[in-house]
Write a structure and sequence with these properties.
With 147 residues, the chain is an alpha+beta fold. The chain has a single domain (3-106), classed as Gcn5-related N-acetyltransferase (GNAT) (Aminopeptidase, 3-Layer(aba) Sandwich). The protein contains three helices and seven strands; from the N terminus they run E-H-E-E-E-H-E-H-E-E. The strands form two sheets. The protein has a four-stranded antiparallel β-sheet with strand order 1-2-3-4, sandwiched between helices. A three-stranded antiparallel β-sheet has the order 5-7-6. It is globular. The chain starts with a strand and ends with a strand.
C-alpha cells in the first residue's frame, strides 16, 4: 500500500519539497494552531523520508545527522497526513526512519524531541524518555532515546 523515498535536500524535486512543506504546515501550524518558524535551517543537512500512497504524501520525517540537533543522529518533523491516520502510515514511517538512520550512520542511539502525548507511540519502537517535560512553541515535549 505504501512506498517510500529517501532523498537528500538537493535531490528533492520542487513537487516533493512543496508536498513535505505543505504537510508540515498543515499539521504543525494549522492543525496544532502553533505559530513557529518551521524552516529552521536544518533541512539542507538532512535526509528526507517520504511515505507515499500513490501520489499522496501519507507521512514524512527528516533524518538529522549527529551534531545538528543532538550529539546523536535524530529523527524529526515526524508527521502523518490527517487523511492517513489510523492506517499505519506513521508506524511505517518510524520503522523505515529507524532502519535508515542505522543504514546511514551505523548502529547506535537515536535521539528525538517528541510531543509528550506521543510517548506511548515512540515507546513502542524502543524509545525511552530522558529528562523532564519541556515546552517547545507552547506544546509539551520530551526527549526520548533509542539505545
Amino acid at each position: 500500500m505504501y512506498h517510500w523515498t529517501l532523498k537528500r535536500f538537493e535531490e528533492l524535486s520542487a513537487q516533493e519539497l512543496y508536498a513535505l512543506l505543505r504537510l508540515r504546515s498543515e499539521v504543525f501550524v494549522v492543525e496544532q494552531n502553533c505559530v513557529f518558524l518551521d524552516m529552521d535551517g536544518k533541512d539542507p543537512y538532512c535526509y528526507h523520508l517520504m511515505i507515499w500512497a500513490g501520489t499522496a504524501l501519507a507521512a514524512y520525517a527528516r533524518i538529522v545527522p549527529a551534531g545538528i540537533s543532538y550529539e546523536e543522529p535524530s529523527i524529526g518533523r515526524v508527521v502523518s497526513s490527517p487523511d492517513f491516520r489510523g492506517k499505519r502510515a506513521g508506524r511505517t514511517l518510524m520503522e523505515q526512519a529507524i532502519e535508515q538512520v542505522h543504514h546511514l550512520y551505523g548502529p547506535g542511539p537515536i535521539r528525538i524531541g517528541a510531543q509528550q502525548y506521543l510517548e506511548e507511540f515512540y515507546s513502542s519502537f524502543g524509545f525511552i524518555q530522558e529528562g523532564e517535560m519541556y515546552l517547545e512553541d507552547g506544546i509539551p515535549h520530551i526527549i526520548m532515546v533509542k539505545k
